[in-house]
Design goal:
Blueprint lengths: L1 H15 L12 H7 L10 E5 L11 H8 L4 E6 L17 E2 L6 E4 L17 E5 L10 H15 L2 E5 L11 E4 L14 E3 L4 H11 L5 E5 L27 H10 L19 E4 L4 H9 L6 E8 L11 E8 L7 H14 L8 H8 L3 H7 L4 H9 L2 H8 L6
Helix pairs in contact: 4-5, 6-8
Length: about 400
Protein backbone atom coordinates (compact mmCIF):
# COMPACT_ATOMS: atom_id res chain seq x y z
CA UNK A 1 0.00 0.00 0.00
CA UNK A 2 2.87 2.39 0.81
CA UNK A 3 4.39 1.68 -2.63
CA UNK A 4 1.07 2.40 -4.35
CA UNK A 5 0.72 5.69 -2.46
CA UNK A 6 4.24 6.76 -3.43
CA UNK A 7 3.64 5.93 -7.11
CA UNK A 8 0.37 7.88 -7.05
CA UNK A 9 2.08 10.85 -5.40
CA UNK A 10 4.81 10.91 -8.04
CA UNK A 11 2.27 10.76 -10.88
CA UNK A 12 0.32 13.59 -9.26
CA UNK A 13 3.52 15.58 -8.89
CA UNK A 14 4.32 15.29 -12.57
CA UNK A 15 0.80 16.19 -13.68
CA UNK A 16 0.04 19.03 -11.28
CA UNK A 17 3.48 20.48 -10.67
CA UNK A 18 5.60 20.09 -13.78
CA UNK A 19 8.38 22.31 -12.40
CA UNK A 20 8.89 20.14 -9.31
CA UNK A 21 11.60 17.52 -9.03
CA UNK A 22 10.46 14.27 -10.60
CA UNK A 23 12.20 12.21 -7.92
CA UNK A 24 10.36 13.85 -5.01
CA UNK A 25 7.30 12.09 -3.57
CA UNK A 26 6.12 15.40 -2.10
CA UNK A 27 4.13 18.11 -3.86
CA UNK A 28 4.44 21.38 -1.94
CA UNK A 29 1.52 23.68 -1.26
CA UNK A 30 3.04 26.38 -3.46
CA UNK A 31 3.27 23.98 -6.40
CA UNK A 32 -0.39 23.10 -5.90
CA UNK A 33 -1.21 26.81 -5.80
CA UNK A 34 0.70 27.50 -9.00
CA UNK A 35 -0.82 24.52 -10.79
CA UNK A 36 -4.45 25.20 -10.06
CA UNK A 37 -5.12 26.77 -6.65
CA UNK A 38 -4.68 30.32 -7.93
CA UNK A 39 -7.95 29.99 -9.87
CA UNK A 40 -9.87 30.37 -6.59
CA UNK A 41 -8.57 33.92 -6.29
CA UNK A 42 -11.10 34.93 -8.95
CA UNK A 43 -9.03 37.92 -10.00
CA UNK A 44 -8.30 39.21 -6.50
CA UNK A 45 -4.88 40.67 -5.71
CA UNK A 46 -2.47 39.03 -3.29
CA UNK A 47 0.28 40.04 -0.90
CA UNK A 48 2.99 37.40 -0.50
CA UNK A 49 4.61 36.71 2.88
CA UNK A 50 7.84 34.92 2.03
CA UNK A 51 11.62 34.85 2.06
CA UNK A 52 14.45 32.94 0.39
CA UNK A 53 13.07 29.63 1.70
CA UNK A 54 9.81 30.13 -0.17
CA UNK A 55 10.72 28.01 -3.18
CA UNK A 56 8.86 25.51 -5.30
CA UNK A 57 9.73 21.85 -5.54
CA UNK A 58 12.17 22.67 -8.34
CA UNK A 59 13.87 25.32 -6.21
CA UNK A 60 12.38 28.30 -8.04
CA UNK A 61 11.66 31.39 -5.95
CA UNK A 62 7.91 31.51 -5.34
CA UNK A 63 7.59 35.23 -6.13
CA UNK A 64 9.36 34.71 -9.45
CA UNK A 65 7.16 31.71 -10.22
CA UNK A 66 3.98 33.69 -9.48
CA UNK A 67 5.06 36.61 -11.63
CA UNK A 68 5.85 34.29 -14.53
CA UNK A 69 2.24 33.14 -14.44
CA UNK A 70 1.16 36.60 -15.58
CA UNK A 71 -2.46 36.19 -14.52
CA UNK A 72 -1.99 36.61 -10.76
CA UNK A 73 -2.16 40.16 -9.40
CA UNK A 74 0.58 40.79 -6.79
CA UNK A 75 0.37 44.02 -4.75
CA UNK A 76 3.10 43.65 -2.14
CA UNK A 77 5.70 41.42 -0.53
CA UNK A 78 6.17 40.91 3.22
CA UNK A 79 9.43 39.69 4.78
CA UNK A 80 10.06 38.09 8.23
CA UNK A 81 13.19 37.99 10.39
CA UNK A 82 16.37 37.61 8.27
CA UNK A 83 14.76 39.60 5.45
CA UNK A 84 13.34 38.71 2.05
CA UNK A 85 16.59 37.11 0.90
CA UNK A 86 17.20 35.31 4.22
CA UNK A 87 20.67 36.81 4.66
CA UNK A 88 20.22 39.08 7.69
CA UNK A 89 21.67 37.83 11.03
CA UNK A 90 19.26 36.78 13.79
CA UNK A 91 17.70 39.71 15.59
CA UNK A 92 18.85 42.30 13.03
CA UNK A 93 16.44 45.15 12.25
CA UNK A 94 15.10 44.87 8.70
CA UNK A 95 13.78 47.97 6.95
CA UNK A 96 11.05 48.14 4.30
CA UNK A 97 12.07 49.00 0.75
CA UNK A 98 11.10 48.66 -2.91
CA UNK A 99 12.33 45.53 -4.69
CA UNK A 100 14.34 46.61 -7.74
CA UNK A 101 13.62 43.44 -9.69
CA UNK A 102 9.84 43.51 -9.37
CA UNK A 103 9.12 47.11 -8.43
CA UNK A 104 6.96 45.81 -5.58
CA UNK A 105 7.04 47.21 -2.05
CA UNK A 106 8.73 44.87 0.42
CA UNK A 107 7.23 45.47 3.85
CA UNK A 108 9.39 44.30 6.73
CA UNK A 109 7.71 42.36 9.52
CA UNK A 110 10.89 42.48 11.56
CA UNK A 111 11.50 46.20 11.68
CA UNK A 112 9.31 49.08 12.77
CA UNK A 113 6.39 46.66 13.13
CA UNK A 114 5.79 42.92 13.22
CA UNK A 115 2.14 43.18 12.19
CA UNK A 116 1.08 44.20 8.68
CA UNK A 117 -0.59 47.59 9.03
CA UNK A 118 -3.77 48.73 7.31
CA UNK A 119 -1.65 50.85 4.96
CA UNK A 120 0.50 47.84 4.02
CA UNK A 121 -2.62 45.84 3.25
CA UNK A 122 -4.18 48.49 1.03
CA UNK A 123 -5.12 46.88 -2.27
CA UNK A 124 -4.39 43.37 -0.97
CA UNK A 125 -7.39 41.03 -1.01
CA UNK A 126 -5.62 37.80 0.01
CA UNK A 127 -2.40 37.25 1.95
CA UNK A 128 -0.41 34.20 0.81
CA UNK A 129 2.18 32.74 3.20
CA UNK A 130 5.01 30.59 1.80
CA UNK A 131 7.92 30.17 4.23
CA UNK A 132 9.77 27.02 5.29
CA UNK A 133 9.68 26.42 9.05
CA UNK A 134 12.09 24.21 11.06
CA UNK A 135 9.64 22.53 13.47
CA UNK A 136 10.74 24.49 16.55
CA UNK A 137 8.58 26.83 18.65
CA UNK A 138 11.32 29.47 19.13
CA UNK A 139 11.89 29.90 15.39
CA UNK A 140 10.15 33.17 14.64
CA UNK A 141 8.58 32.44 11.26
CA UNK A 142 5.50 30.84 12.82
CA UNK A 143 5.08 33.85 15.10
CA UNK A 144 5.19 36.06 12.01
CA UNK A 145 2.53 33.81 10.47
CA UNK A 146 0.36 34.23 13.58
CA UNK A 147 0.73 38.03 13.50
CA UNK A 148 -0.15 38.11 9.80
CA UNK A 149 -3.21 36.00 10.54
CA UNK A 150 -4.22 38.41 13.31
CA UNK A 151 -3.86 41.40 10.98
CA UNK A 152 -5.79 39.61 8.25
CA UNK A 153 -8.62 38.89 10.69
CA UNK A 154 -8.71 42.53 11.83
CA UNK A 155 -8.75 43.83 8.24
CA UNK A 156 -11.24 41.26 6.92
CA UNK A 157 -8.69 39.79 4.51
CA UNK A 158 -8.30 36.14 3.61
CA UNK A 159 -5.04 34.38 4.37
CA UNK A 160 -3.81 31.32 2.52
CA UNK A 161 -1.05 29.13 3.93
CA UNK A 162 0.89 27.12 1.36
CA UNK A 163 1.91 24.09 3.35
CA UNK A 164 5.44 22.74 3.60
CA UNK A 165 7.06 19.79 5.44
CA UNK A 166 8.11 19.83 9.05
CA UNK A 167 11.76 19.02 8.27
CA UNK A 168 12.32 17.12 11.53
CA UNK A 169 9.19 15.01 11.09
CA UNK A 170 5.79 15.12 12.68
CA UNK A 171 5.91 12.17 15.07
CA UNK A 172 8.10 13.30 17.99
CA UNK A 173 6.60 15.93 20.29
CA UNK A 174 8.68 16.98 23.28
CA UNK A 175 9.76 19.77 25.55
CA UNK A 176 7.94 22.01 27.98
CA UNK A 177 4.64 23.51 26.86
CA UNK A 178 4.97 27.30 26.89
CA UNK A 179 4.03 28.89 30.21
CA UNK A 180 1.94 31.98 29.26
CA UNK A 181 4.05 34.04 31.68
CA UNK A 182 6.91 33.67 29.19
CA UNK A 183 4.95 34.56 26.07
CA UNK A 184 7.13 36.38 23.53
CA UNK A 185 7.89 36.58 19.83
CA UNK A 186 9.77 33.27 20.16
CA UNK A 187 6.74 31.66 21.75
CA UNK A 188 3.22 33.07 21.38
CA UNK A 189 1.04 30.10 22.21
CA UNK A 190 1.12 27.17 24.70
CA UNK A 191 2.72 24.54 22.49
CA UNK A 192 5.83 22.42 23.20
CA UNK A 193 9.33 23.31 22.01
CA UNK A 194 9.05 20.54 19.41
CA UNK A 195 5.46 20.45 18.22
CA UNK A 196 5.60 18.05 15.26
CA UNK A 197 3.33 20.15 13.03
CA UNK A 198 3.55 21.71 9.58
CA UNK A 199 2.94 25.44 9.11
CA UNK A 200 -0.50 24.68 7.70
CA UNK A 201 -1.41 22.59 10.72
CA UNK A 202 -0.09 25.24 13.08
CA UNK A 203 -2.15 27.86 11.26
CA UNK A 204 -5.28 25.77 11.80
CA UNK A 205 -4.42 25.36 15.49
CA UNK A 206 -3.67 29.06 15.98
CA UNK A 207 -6.79 30.14 14.10
CA UNK A 208 -9.30 27.90 15.83
CA UNK A 209 -7.66 26.51 18.96
CA UNK A 210 -6.17 29.85 19.98
CA UNK A 211 -9.00 31.94 18.55
CA UNK A 212 -7.44 34.18 15.89
CA UNK A 213 -10.55 33.78 13.76
CA UNK A 214 -9.12 34.69 10.35
CA UNK A 215 -10.60 33.66 7.00
CA UNK A 216 -8.05 30.87 6.64
CA UNK A 217 -7.37 28.56 3.73
CA UNK A 218 -4.57 25.96 3.84
CA UNK A 219 -3.35 24.52 0.56
CA UNK A 220 -1.97 21.13 1.63
CA UNK A 221 0.89 19.09 0.30
CA UNK A 222 0.47 15.68 -1.23
CA UNK A 223 2.84 12.81 -0.59
CA UNK A 224 4.22 14.04 2.74
CA UNK A 225 3.88 11.62 5.65
CA UNK A 226 4.34 12.38 9.34
CA UNK A 227 7.35 10.15 9.78
CA UNK A 228 9.29 11.83 6.97
CA UNK A 229 12.34 13.93 7.78
CA UNK A 230 13.64 16.32 5.15
CA UNK A 231 16.12 14.01 3.44
CA UNK A 232 13.25 11.59 2.74
CA UNK A 233 11.13 14.16 0.88
CA UNK A 234 13.36 14.24 -2.20
CA UNK A 235 13.32 18.06 -2.02
CA UNK A 236 16.38 20.28 -2.14
CA UNK A 237 17.06 22.19 1.07
CA UNK A 238 17.17 25.97 0.83
CA UNK A 239 18.70 27.67 3.91
CA UNK A 240 15.93 29.18 6.02
CA UNK A 241 18.35 31.60 7.73
CA UNK A 242 22.12 32.13 7.88
CA UNK A 243 22.63 29.58 10.67
CA UNK A 244 20.35 26.89 9.21
CA UNK A 245 22.39 26.17 6.08
CA UNK A 246 21.63 22.44 5.87
CA UNK A 247 18.63 20.23 6.46
CA UNK A 248 20.54 18.49 9.25
CA UNK A 249 20.84 21.87 10.99
CA UNK A 250 17.13 21.67 11.79
CA UNK A 251 17.63 18.40 13.69
CA UNK A 252 20.15 19.88 16.13
CA UNK A 253 18.67 23.39 16.34
CA UNK A 254 16.47 22.48 19.33
CA UNK A 255 19.40 20.78 21.05
CA UNK A 256 21.99 23.51 21.00
CA UNK A 257 19.82 26.54 20.26
CA UNK A 258 18.60 26.24 23.86
CA UNK A 259 22.01 26.16 25.57
CA UNK A 260 23.79 29.33 24.48
CA UNK A 261 22.54 31.41 27.40
CA UNK A 262 24.23 28.92 29.72
CA UNK A 263 27.66 30.01 28.54
CA UNK A 264 28.04 27.22 25.97
CA UNK A 265 28.96 27.91 22.37
CA UNK A 266 26.72 25.99 19.98
CA UNK A 267 28.79 26.23 16.85
CA UNK A 268 27.14 29.44 15.65
CA UNK A 269 29.94 31.53 14.22
CA UNK A 270 31.65 28.45 12.78
CA UNK A 271 31.24 26.24 9.73
CA UNK A 272 28.87 23.93 11.62
CA UNK A 273 26.24 26.08 13.34
CA UNK A 274 24.22 24.25 16.01
CA UNK A 275 26.19 21.02 15.48
CA UNK A 276 28.61 21.62 18.36
CA UNK A 277 28.52 22.32 22.07
CA UNK A 278 31.40 23.46 24.20
CA UNK A 279 33.38 26.31 25.69
CA UNK A 280 36.91 27.59 26.12
CA UNK A 281 38.97 25.27 28.29
CA UNK A 282 36.46 22.40 28.40
CA UNK A 283 37.63 18.79 28.51
CA UNK A 284 35.94 17.64 25.31
CA UNK A 285 36.76 13.99 25.86
CA UNK A 286 35.18 14.01 29.32
CA UNK A 287 32.11 15.84 27.97
CA UNK A 288 31.68 13.31 25.15
CA UNK A 289 32.14 10.37 27.52
CA UNK A 290 29.53 11.72 29.94
CA UNK A 291 27.01 12.28 27.15
CA UNK A 292 27.60 8.97 25.41
CA UNK A 293 27.18 7.16 28.73
CA UNK A 294 23.61 8.46 28.82
CA UNK A 295 22.68 6.30 25.78
CA UNK A 296 20.51 8.99 24.22
CA UNK A 297 18.61 7.43 21.30
CA UNK A 298 19.78 8.13 17.77
CA UNK A 299 22.90 10.16 18.58
CA UNK A 300 26.52 9.98 19.68
CA UNK A 301 29.00 12.65 20.61
CA UNK A 302 32.55 13.10 19.33
CA UNK A 303 35.20 15.25 21.04
CA UNK A 304 36.21 18.19 18.87
CA UNK A 305 37.71 21.66 18.79
CA UNK A 306 36.81 24.69 16.69
CA UNK A 307 37.62 28.37 16.42
CA UNK A 308 34.64 30.66 15.77
CA UNK A 309 35.11 33.32 13.11
CA UNK A 310 32.35 35.46 14.64
CA UNK A 311 30.68 36.09 17.98
CA UNK A 312 31.94 36.42 21.55
CA UNK A 313 34.57 33.67 21.17
CA UNK A 314 35.86 34.89 17.79
CA UNK A 315 39.42 33.73 17.18
CA UNK A 316 39.69 31.51 20.29
CA UNK A 317 39.86 27.74 20.16
CA UNK A 318 36.93 26.10 21.90
CA UNK A 319 36.61 22.47 22.88
CA UNK A 320 33.58 20.28 23.39
CA UNK A 321 31.58 17.84 21.30
CA UNK A 322 30.15 17.46 17.84
CA UNK A 323 26.63 16.05 17.67
CA UNK A 324 26.44 13.13 15.26
CA UNK A 325 22.88 11.96 14.58
CA UNK A 326 22.62 8.26 13.79
CA UNK A 327 18.83 8.02 13.54
CA UNK A 328 16.75 11.20 13.06
CA UNK A 329 13.55 9.25 13.71
CA UNK A 330 14.48 8.50 17.33
CA UNK A 331 16.71 11.48 18.17
CA UNK A 332 15.12 13.51 21.02
CA UNK A 333 16.36 17.00 20.26
CA UNK A 334 14.93 18.81 23.30
CA UNK A 335 15.92 16.11 25.77
CA UNK A 336 19.42 16.35 24.31
CA UNK A 337 19.50 20.05 25.20
CA UNK A 338 18.85 19.08 28.83
CA UNK A 339 21.55 16.42 28.68
CA UNK A 340 24.05 18.96 27.33
CA UNK A 341 23.22 21.40 30.13
CA UNK A 342 23.42 18.82 32.91
CA UNK A 343 26.67 17.29 31.66
CA UNK A 344 28.24 20.76 31.43
CA UNK A 345 27.01 21.51 34.95
CA UNK A 346 28.60 18.33 36.28
CA UNK A 347 31.89 19.33 34.63
CA UNK A 348 31.60 22.77 36.31
CA UNK A 349 31.62 24.75 33.07
CA UNK A 350 27.99 25.89 33.12
CA UNK A 351 27.60 29.65 33.64
CA UNK A 352 24.12 31.03 33.02
CA UNK A 353 24.65 34.67 32.12
CA UNK A 354 21.18 35.66 30.93
CA UNK A 355 18.47 33.87 32.89
CA UNK A 356 15.69 35.98 31.41
CA UNK A 357 16.57 35.10 27.82
CA UNK A 358 17.13 31.44 28.68
CA UNK A 359 13.68 31.24 30.32
CA UNK A 360 12.12 33.01 27.33
CA UNK A 361 13.66 30.53 24.89
CA UNK A 362 12.52 27.55 26.96
CA UNK A 363 9.11 29.11 27.62
CA UNK A 364 9.49 28.37 31.33
CA UNK A 365 11.89 28.96 34.21
CA UNK A 366 11.57 25.40 35.50
CA UNK A 367 14.34 23.97 33.32
CA UNK A 368 16.92 26.54 34.39
CA UNK A 369 16.01 26.20 38.06
CA UNK A 370 16.08 22.39 37.91
CA UNK A 371 19.50 22.33 36.22
CA UNK A 372 20.93 24.69 38.84
CA UNK A 373 19.33 22.64 41.62
CA UNK A 374 21.25 19.56 40.49
CA UNK A 375 18.31 17.56 39.18
CA UNK A 376 19.02 14.78 36.69
CA UNK A 377 18.02 14.96 33.02
CA UNK A 378 15.40 12.27 33.66
CA UNK A 379 13.83 14.30 36.45
CA UNK A 380 13.74 17.44 34.32
CA UNK A 381 12.18 15.69 31.33
CA UNK A 382 9.64 13.92 33.54
CA UNK A 383 8.51 17.26 34.98
CA UNK A 384 7.28 18.56 31.61
CA UNK A 385 5.69 15.31 30.39
CA UNK A 386 2.34 15.82 32.12
CA UNK A 387 1.40 18.74 29.86
CA UNK A 388 2.28 17.01 26.58
CA UNK A 389 -0.74 14.61 26.34
CA UNK A 390 -3.32 17.45 26.62
CA UNK A 391 -1.49 19.26 23.83
CA UNK A 392 -1.50 16.10 21.70
CA UNK A 393 -5.26 15.78 22.17
CA UNK A 394 -5.72 19.37 21.01
CA UNK A 395 -3.24 18.94 18.15
CA UNK A 396 -5.08 15.92 16.74
CA UNK A 397 -7.99 18.16 15.74
CA UNK A 398 -5.82 20.16 13.34
CA UNK A 399 -3.55 17.59 11.69
CA UNK A 400 -3.75 17.25 7.91
CA UNK A 401 -1.50 14.23 7.33
Amino acid sequence: MRFVKCVFAIVLLLVCAPNARADSPVTLGDDAFLADGWRELHGRCIGIVTNASGVTGSGENFVDAVRQQGHICVRALFAPEHGLRGNRPAGTYVASYTDEQTGLPVFSLYGATRHPSAAMLDGVDVLVFDIQDVGARPYTYVSTMAYVMQSAAAAGKEIWILDRPDPIGGTIVEGPVLDPRFKSFVGLYPIPERHGMTVGELARLFNDGFHIGAQLKVIPMTGWQRDMVWNETGLRWTPTSPNIPYAKSTLVYLSTGLIDEAGLNNGVGSDKPFERAGVFGMDGKAYAAALNARNIPGVHFTPTTWTPYAGFWKGRELSGVEIDIDNPHTFPSVRTAVELLCAARDLHVLHIHDARTMDRDWGTDTVRKAVLAGESPDQIVHAWQAKVPPFLALRDRYLLY
